[in-house]
Specification:
By secondary structure, the protein is mainly α. It has helices at about 1-20, 40-70, 95-120.
């Protein structure tokens, strides 16, 4: 099921990228994001990839929780994230929740407008 969760996570991220065109961001309301986000394929790819990277962990854990709640898996198996390169202690649940909130805020207030400007307004 782990491969299925990774594919579902990727699908969720792609849906977020596609659905961003219907969000509250219009090309006229994004003047703060200037020319460096032009419609070049590099800007579109970089903004999309960075958005997917930031959504990876929350999307995977959400899908893992969903499969547990639907009874498809016997227990909740989130991704294990460690504090540092040489640390053997995983990040606590409380810290993960705080990081999820910060991550979603960065995505919603900065990366989605940047992606929208690069992908749809160029």
């Amino acid at each position: 099921m782990k491969t299925g969760k990774h594919l579902a996570m990727l699908a969720v991220c792609l849906v977020v990228l596609w659905a961003s065109r219907f969000g509250p961001y219009t090309c006229g309301s994004l003047p703060a994001f200037t020319g460096e986000t032009g419609a070049s394929w590099l800007a579109i790819a970089a903004n999309g990839l960075f958005l997917v990277l930031l959504l990876y962990l929350p999307a995977y854990d959400f899908i893992s929780l969903l499969t547990y709640k639907l009874g498809w898996e016997p227990r909740f198996n989130p991704l294990v994230v460690y504090e540092g390169e040489f640390s053997t202690n995983p990040v606590s649940t409380k810290t993960r929740r705080i990081l999820y909130a910060v991550d979603i805020a960065v995505v919603g207030f900065f990366l989605l407008p940047l992606w929208t400007k690069a992908a749809y307004c160029g």
